[in-house]
Design goal:
single chain, about 375 residues, alpha/beta, Rossmann fold, Arc Repressor Mutant, subunit A, seven-stranded mixed sheet, two-stranded antiparallel sheet, 15 helices, about 45% helix, globular, disordered N terminus
Length: about 375
């Protein structure tokens, strides 16, 4: 989960400067901007300036350009917070494909962005990054010896290319001293709300969160995305059959022995197949699949936690509770209360779970 920022209420005006460069990620900029603007509606006093190297508009990754207020050279001498969004080099082109993770370059390869951050950082009391903006801070040595995070798809790269950075791959945001790094894209909302809470108190941040229809502190971290987005599509027929069986009946016997027999391979070979084609161990896959099933049952039905645990394959509410806490940072009851649907699909939880399994079976077939 995210690491808390201590609250120190203040009514002083705070100058926020966003460093923009060509092909910046639009949501990395727009999400915090909206949070700070709404905070001003509830009593905060943010003065926000958008700066680019030349003072000219910049391109974004999302079909539009952004106007800016000032060139970097004209930025205020004293900045409360310097915010560094992620992005890609201006000449970078995304290549269409079937991959789940866009094969993109990070902005530490953009000289203009590095120069702008290098120039403005000494003027800032606090420096925050969103998504791959952390790569700019890391490239300038600002995160050496510090805890930091970035988009989940780039955490391993950040740790590999900048080994002096202590990467927390599950956090939505991490504060280490005067540096705050946020995870991917929409996590800019979480980071900005944390900044508002630090600057103007919990009440203002809570009112902003309610107006924006988001959690003040959402449960879980980056690791809460679906297991299906992590698991690759297997090429081996036997492995596909194993994955389908787990999805269709998560409460069945899915021990390594049973799955190996289903795939007609040895347990050692099964483990190798999972490692190479799914990217996790058989036990981890089963646990994540059961977690997905339990989440679906909790928000689409009214069964007791004992019944949900049994149908999802956890066996007992205690086991389910432990895995929810470890994986999502919230109890099953807490998850249900926060994510329950309006009720339109709550009448047939059995069919919901079966349809969910069949949908995943079709994904494997495709």
């Amino acid at each position: 989960m995210s690491r808390s920022i201590t609250t120190t209420e203040s009514a002083v005006e705070r100058t926020m400067v966003f460093v923009l460069y060509d092909k910046v990620t639009l949501q990395d900029v727009a999400a915090p901007l909206e949070i700070f603007a709404r905070a001003n509606d509830f009593g905060a006093r943010y003065r926000v300036l958008l700066a680019s190297p030349t003072g000219q508009p910049v391109g974004t990754t999302a079909f539009t350009r952004l106007c800016v207020d000032i060139p970097v050279a004209d930025a205020p001498h004293s900045i409360d917070t310097l915010l560094v969004p992620g992005g890609v080099p201006a000449d970078f082109t995304f290549v269409s494909g079937t991959h789940d993770i866009p094969e993109e370059l990070t902005p530490d390869t953009v000289p203009e962005a590095l120069a702008a951050v290098r120039e403005l950082a000494p003027r800032a009391s606090r420096i925050a990054s969103v998504c791959t903006g952390a790569f700019l801070l890391a490239a300038l040595g600002m995160l050496d010896g510090r805890h930091a995070t970035t988009h989940w798809a780039h955490c391993a790269q950040l740790a590999r290319e900048y080994p002096n950075v202590i990467v927390d791959q599950d956090a939505l945001f991490v504060q280490d001293g005067s540096f705050i790094t946020g995870a991917g894209i929409s996590a800019g909302i979480d980071l900005a709300l944390a900044i508002v809470e630090n600057d103007y108190g919990t009440d203002v941040a809570r009112r902003v969160a309610r107006w924006m229809v988001v959690f003040l502190q959402r449960p879980g971290g980056q690791d809460q995305f679906s297991v299906w987005s992590q698991a690759g599509i297997p090429t081996t027929r036997g492995l596909r059959q194993v994955l389908d069986a787990v999805a269709l009946d998560p409460a069945a016997d899915h021990s390594t022995t049973a799955m190996a027999a289903r795939a007609a391979v040895s347990e050692r070979h099964l483990a190798r197949m999972f490692r190479d084609e799914v990217g996790m161990t058989p036990a981890r896959y089963v646990e994540r699949t059961r977690l997905e099933a339990a989440k679906l049952l909790l928000v689409t039905g009214d069964e007791s936690q004992e019944a949900v645990a049994r149908r999802a394959g956890f066996g007992s509410p205690e086991t389910m509770r432990r895995i929810f806490r470890r994986s999502l940072g919230v109890s099953p009851g807490g998850y249900r209360s926060r994510f329950r649907t309006t009720g339109i699909n709550r009448r047939a939880p059995e069919s919901n779970l079966v349809n969910h399994g069949r949908m995943l079976q079709q994904e494997h077939a495709d």
